[in-house]
Write a sequence for this structure.
């Protein structure tokens, strides 16, 4: 067989001729490439097809991706049916509970890995298989920078099971039962029994945590096929959707470049607004705001926090899933999945946005089956919560903003004034939170410093500070808690997060002292330190420069991370990955 491929011109190479390794002789590079790949048993006719990359994020450390081998097989089947050549390649896989110091510390590394592997290898389109919280955002950040045609498919949520008749799901109920254990309401034997039940199948957390939120937002934004967000990980339908995704990837690869459905074409200001409307309407994870801010920034769209807050004032929470509601992702799937939610949100959405299927969002909503007798999706006139799930706060404690999931907070604490009980770091928190001599009362405000993007580093999900044991044992279930950390999307409580600038950057959070009074007023969108301005200025002036306080090492990934990671309000990406155009980008829209 000749080495040249008639389907490819040298001006616009595709398939196996794409991105030839530089030996100085392109034909020799192709000769070498073919020689090596034939070691895997490929024929010339297989190599003449459009090449569809499939990211393999399987890892023994990632049970949320436990179905990935079967999904890959299904996607390959679809690619082959449509005349493409599937090529599976590995990337980093990041699981929430197997990432030290925290998965967020590794998200940008996964984005870089995915991006550069898509650039380096000859792919005409790529199927992104991800699921656990940071993985889909990382993949889409990378894809946004490369701007090749990609199609995302999540691994899907776990199924639930019950313990003593109580339905359980990771990980809202992990926290609920752990709180009971700390309060001595249940003993070691019982908490061990619960531990066996919380994650009964492979797949992502089955509440409306970060993984489910991201899957819903990606479907709303048009980067995955309809139905892919909610079908449980172990159901046959998920593998049929993977097969369909494989077929569609080949069609994407065959489109002329001027019509290519790349992330830059699909993820517009309008489609990103649709995704953020969904974030409000599903009572989704606060983390998703950071991730979509990072994805949007790579495409030159700035998600302005105040615009996001205004958007939420018109969007009711319609989905009765934990932690804002009562149910689980399998119930959302039974109700018709995300498309049924979008049908209720129709007046609030930009329906003309093109999706990866080639149809508009409006067309997809119209084509989706209608489910009667729904259990968890409310109509707009009878919402779970009258306005969007997240609110953005500002004030002298958070000049660039902070976030609260008020749909999962205690209503009585949404307007609260209390005495600060300050922990200066995660280590300090671990050391003192449960001490009998800790001076703390139920109406105090727990404050955690130095848990932000640079300070921790990696902005861990430590914002859900535990209720001090002595208060938990006295029956206290919630307190106002504030920090520059993140919180798991599965958590609940009156918790103010993402305070920006973070304390390690000498934001005002750094100068809060135990005994100061803090005022939270979610209706007014305020978070204030009630200390006079002169005293605040004096305390800020006393702080050492951030570079001194951070103790950044001379070498290694940690140095790259701590010297370049941005603040939460702009997405916690590496500063060198964000195009300068984003600074003057259009802001988030809203209907
Ligand atoms: Fe992976 Fe929750 S731990 S989705």
């Amino acid at each position: 067989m000749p080495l040249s491929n008639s389907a490819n011109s040298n001006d616009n190479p595709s398939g196996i001729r794409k991105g030839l390794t530089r030996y100085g002789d392109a034909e020799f590079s192709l000769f070498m490439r073919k020689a090596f790949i034939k070691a895997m048993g490929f024929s010339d006719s297989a190599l003449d097809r459009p090449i569809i990359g499939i990211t393999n994020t399987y890892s023994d450390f990632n049970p949320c991706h436990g179905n990935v081998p079967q999904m890959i097989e299904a996607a390959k089947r679809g690619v082959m049916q449509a005349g493409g050549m599937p090529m599976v390649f590995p990337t980093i896989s990041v699981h929430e509970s197997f990432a030290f110091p925290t998965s967020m510390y590794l998200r940008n590394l996964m984005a870089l890995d995915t991006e550069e592997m898509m650039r380096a290898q000859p792919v005409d389109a790529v199927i992104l298989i991800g699921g656990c919280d940071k993985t889909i955002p990382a993949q889409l950040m990378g894809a946004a920078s490369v701007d090749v045609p990609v199609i995302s498919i999540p691994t899907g949520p776990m199924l639930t099971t019950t313990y003593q008749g109580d339905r359980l799901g990771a990980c809202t109920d992990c926290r609920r039962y752990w709180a009971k254990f700390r309060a001595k309401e249940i003993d070691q034997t019982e908490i061990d029994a619960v531990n066996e039940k919380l994650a009964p199948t492979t797949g992502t957390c089955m509440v409306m945590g970060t993984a489910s939120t991201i899957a819903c937002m990606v479907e709303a934004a048009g980067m995955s096929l309809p139905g892919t967000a909610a079908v449980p990980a172990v159901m046959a339908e998920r593998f049929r959707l993977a097969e369909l995704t494989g077929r569609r990837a080949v069609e994407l690869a065959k489109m002329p470049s001027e019509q290519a459905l790349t992330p830059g074409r699909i993820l517009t200001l309008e489609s990103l607004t649709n995704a953020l409307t969904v974030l409000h309407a599903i009572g989704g994870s606060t983390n998703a705001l950071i991730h979509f801010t990072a994805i949007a920034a790579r495409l030159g769209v700035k998600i302005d926090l105040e615009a996001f807050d205004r958007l939420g004032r018109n969007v009711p929470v319609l989905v009765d899933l934990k932690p804002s509601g009562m149910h689980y992702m399998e119930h959302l799937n039974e109700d018709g999945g995300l498309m049924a939610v979008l049908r209720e949100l129709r007046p609030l959405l930009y329906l003309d946005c093109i999706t990866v299927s080639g149809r508009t969002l409006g067309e997809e909503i119209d084509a989706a089956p209608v489910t009667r007798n729904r259990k968890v999706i409310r109509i707009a006139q009878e919402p779970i919560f009258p306005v969007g799930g997240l609110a953005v706060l500002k004030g002298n404690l958070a000049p660039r903003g902070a976030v609260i999931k008020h749909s999962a907070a205690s209503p009585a604490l949404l307007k609260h004034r209390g005495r600060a009980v300050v922990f200066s770091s995660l280590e300090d928190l671990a050391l003192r939170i449960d001490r009998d001599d800790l001076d703390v009362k139920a109406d105090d405000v727990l404050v955690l410093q130095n848990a932000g993007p640079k300070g921790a580093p990696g902005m861990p999900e430590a914002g859900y500070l535990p209720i001090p044991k002595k208060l938990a044992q006295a029956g206290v279930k919630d307190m106002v808690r504030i920090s520059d950390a993140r919180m798991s999307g599965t958590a609940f409580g009156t918790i103010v997060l993402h305070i920006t600038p973070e304390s390690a950057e000498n934001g005002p959070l750094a100068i809060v002292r135990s005994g100061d009074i803090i005022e939270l007023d979610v209706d007014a969108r305020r978070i204030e330190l009630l200390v006079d301005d002169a005293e605040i200025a004096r305390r800020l002036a006393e702080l050492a420069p951030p570079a001194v306080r951070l103790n950044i090492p001379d070498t290694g990934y940690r140095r790259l991370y701590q010297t370049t990671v941005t603040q939460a309000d702009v997405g916690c990406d590496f500063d060198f990955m964000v195009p300068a155009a984003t600074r003057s980008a259009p802001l988030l829209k809203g209907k």
Observations:
- The pocket of FE2/S2 (inorganic) cluster is lined by residues 64, 95-96, 132-133, 204-205, 209, 211 (CB under 6 Å).
- The chain is about 35% helix and 15% strand.
- Residues 1-8 have pLDDT under 50 and may be disordered.
- The first helix runs from residue 26 to 37.
